[in-house]
Amino acid sequence: MDFRNRMKRRSRSVAAAAGPMVLLALVMWSSVATVMVEAAIGVNWGMLSMHKLSPKTVVDLLKENKIRKVKLFDADPEVLRSLRGSGIEVMVGIPNEMLSVISSSSAASDLWIRQNVSSYMVKGGVDIRYIAVGNEPFLTSYSGQFQAYVMPALLNLQQSLARANLAGYIKLVVPCNADAYESSLPSQGSFRPELTQITTQLVSFLNSNGSPFVVNIYPFLSLYGNSDFPQDYAFFEGTNHAVVDGANTYSNAFEGNFDTLVSALSRIGYGQMPIAIGEIGWPTDGAVSANLTAARVFNQGLINHVLSNKGTPLRPGTSPVDVYLFSLLDEGAKSILPGNFERHWGIFSFDGQAKYALNLGFGNGLLKNAKNVDYLPSRWCVGNPSKDFSTVESHLKLACVTADCTTLDYGGSCNGIGAKGNISYAFNSYYQLQKQDVRSCDFDGLGMVTFLDPSVGDCRFLVGISDSDATTGCRVSAARLVFAFWALIFMGVFVF
Fold it and tell me: Residue 319's pLDDT is what?
């Protein structure tokens, strides 16, 4: 079987004062130098939720579970403020759509660093270690849309970090999708031909600045997208479908994919390049192979594998420098174009409650739930059993276009609750999203409020949270608009 098919991937994402900043960086670096050489488990913290926990609650959840590293996809000011003084190491992200401006203007690059990095790198501030420059910018489905911006953006940002006296502490990285490389066997790995030149430039830059190569690996997607993919090969418990590659034998997809990247890096002269895993995980809903048991088995197997320092056949005894689980929380507002499972990757549900028993290896046992979550009252909206539902279709469409009904589809945890159950689930999802506004449970008289939990087995009818910060997305957009406005001024587009 072609190893590339086994690894099938998804389509998816002015200067500071010199003296104090240099001193701060040296102090922070010396205090964590021994930690950075060891593999560590971090998490991706995405914000695309319909029911957002307050950033403070999420940071408390991270601290309670001794999660020392977090990867962000943006630079939300409130999220960064909530991380002040937490001691958590942070990777902030620059979205792909911002690369064009940053690549074309050093002033815009300086502005981004000043707004989103330097202002937080103070005593008692945020411990920013990495800046992710784009997210999977070489993804095949982007058709090269962002490719030309990556290296100029990196060069501008590196100079901006130097001007802010942060270049020796904060590292620039470019998270890549595993579709950037290909092979029939791990030992034959190489970068896609059209990417060879730019990846060589990228890896040379990363090597010169002490940055790792960051890659996103998803064995789940290999299984989901290929009916011939052997299920046991996706996990870490042994397989009857091992891949034999010369003297090396691969018993799981992670090792095979990882070593394909090692070979690709060796082919361009950087076989010893440190590698970090930017995203990896297993969803719990929205597909036949996405469930609580599989997610627990995969994630626990991954964690045990990484922390054992077993390594891979091409890098024995060496684990990735960091591994960021995808993800911390479910994100009910994510696009479901790749599949319904996209909204169910969290090791915690949207309200910070652990979905399954998982030991992150930090010496604190199993996952601990978020505390002090401010729920709405315990009431639900369901279909009124005394009504005729012949006209319900339009109401279901409204509810499920607005709220999240992905668990109702084939493979979902609520797929088997029947037609009336589906109606009630959709009504309730909409009702909770509307903060239990009594009018949102009307549906032309077809809905009714109940105080009896209608959940059935693994199908959970949610209750919303009242401390959600519905304006976070607006703040992010506003921050991007402010940045873009001033960047255009620096570029001479606007003149006063």
Answer: 93
